[in-house]
Amino acid sequence: MKADQLSNILNEKLGVHKNNCGTVIDFTLALHKSRTVNLSQMSNYSTKVGKISSDSIYKNYQRLVHNSNISQDNLAKCIIQMLSLEDCKLTLALDRTNWKYGQEDINLLVLSVCVLGCTLPLYWTELDSRGNSNTGERVELLNRFISEFGAEKIDYLVADREFIGHDWFNYLIEAKIKFIVRIKNNMLLDLNGVEIKSRDLFAVIRQGGMISHQVKIDGVTLLVQATRSTANELVTVVSNCLVEANLLVIYAKRWRIECLFGNLKTKGFNFEDTHFTAKDRIGNLTKLIVLAFVICYLLGLIRASMKPILIKKHGYKQNSYFRYGFDLLIQKLNQNLNSVIQLITLCMSEFPLEERCRKIICVM
Question: Is residue 280 situated within a structural domain?
Fold first, then answer.
C-alpha cells in the first residue's frame, strides 16, 4: 500500500502525527469496507489482516479514537478546500442528532454547510443532556465557525423549530447573520399589536400558496412566511431578512441535513453501532467519519458528472451523491487497493477542483 503522499497531506492539513497517518488511512479504508464504526468488526477489514493480530488492529483503532489530535478547525478548512468553497458564501444548517447506547444518551449539535443534495458537517459539539440545545451552546458552536471563516462567509443560517428564542435571535441579529428558522404552529405572533397564533394567521393558505407578514416575536421584528406542503402540513418560517421573497425556498435546504444524518447512520457508516459514549471519544470518532463521508460525497459528484445517477419513476435519484461515491470506493477496494489510495489522495490534494476532477476521472 503506497500511501506516502496521502500521509503527508494528513500531516500537513489535519495535523495528524506522522506515526499515526498509516493508522488513519487503514481506519478509513476499513470503515468504508465494513460499513460500520464498530471497531471490532472494522478490524476484520483492515489492510493489515494477516500481518498483525486482529487484537493489535483493534487496539490501534481504539488508540486512534482515544487520542486523535485532528482539530475541527483544520477539518473544516480541509472540507471547504476539497469542495472549492473558499470564495463562496455558504448556507449553513444547524440541527441535532441523537441516539442511545444502553442507558447512555449520545446527543450531537451539528453545524453543516448545505451543498448539492445534502449537507457536510463543519463543526459539532457533544451535548451533556439528551434534550434540546440552549442558546449558549448554539452561540459557542457558531462562534467557532465565525472565528475561523468570519460572519461575512455566511449567506443564511437555516434551522428547525427547536432553534428559536429571544436571546438566540438577538445574537444572530447583532452578529449580522441572516437566519431562516421554522416555528411551531401554536407560536404567538404580534401582528400590528394583536397577538395571534401562527396557525390562525395562515389558516386560509392552500397547498402551493404562500403568504408573508411582518410580525414581532418577543419584541424582535421578523418576516414570517408560510405555505402548505403536499402532505397538507403548514410550514411557517421567520427571518430577520425583511425583504427576502423566497424564505421558504432557502429554508428547504435544511432538509438536506436529514440526508446527512441518514448517510452517517443506517444508509452509510452505521454511526449508532459505536460503543463509545465519552464525549471526547465520540468527537474524535465523528472527525474520522466526517472525513470518510466527504471523500465519498466528492467522488459521487465527480462520478455523476461522468455517468448521471439514474432517476426512478417517482422522480427521485436512485442514489445520493454520497452513496454513489461510497459504492465506487467499495468496488475499487475489492479490485485495486492502490487505486483507492490514489482517489483519496486526489480528493484531498491542493490541485484546483477542475484539475482534481480530471485526475480522479482518470483513476476511476
Answer: no
In a domain, 184, yes or no: yes
pLDDT tens digits, one per residue of 329-360: 999 988 888 899 999 999 999 898 889 889 99
Whether 360 is covered by a domain: the verdict is: no
**Does a structural domain hold residue 296?**
no
191: domain CATH number is 3.90.350.10
Rounded Cα distance between 150 and 147, Å, is: 6
DSSP track, 70-118: --HHHHHHHHHHHTT-TTS-EEEEEEEEEEEETTEEEEEEEEEEEETTE
Q: Does the pLDDT value for residue 89 go beyond 60?
A: yes
Cβ distance 325 to 304 under 8 Å?
no
Hey, is 194 helix, strand or coil?
Answer: strand
Grid coordinates given for 209? 400558496
Please write the tens of the pLDDT for every residue from 260-310.
Answer: 667 666 666 776 666 665 667 877 888 888 899 899 999 999 999 888 888
Residue 206 has a CB neighbour count (10 Å cut-off) of 9
Q: In Å, how far from its chain's centre is CA 336?
A: 29
Instruction: Please name the amino acid found at residue 127.
Output: L
C-alpha to C-alpha distance for 52 and 71, rounded to whole angstroms: 29
The C-alpha cell at 351 is: 490541485
Can you tell me the mean pLDDT for 17-33? 89
Instruction: Give the separation between CA 151 and CA 143, rounded to whole angstroms.
Output: 9
Number of domains in the chain: 1
Judge if pTM exceeds 0.85. yes
Query: Rounded to the nearest 5 degrees, what angle is found at the Cα of 236, between the Cα atoms of 232 and 239?
Result: 160
Domain assignment of residue 171, given as a range: 73-258
How far is Cα 1 from Cα 212, in angstroms, rounded to an integer?
Answer: 59
Q: What are the φ and ψ backbone dihedral angles of 160, each rounded to 5 degrees?
A: -90, -175
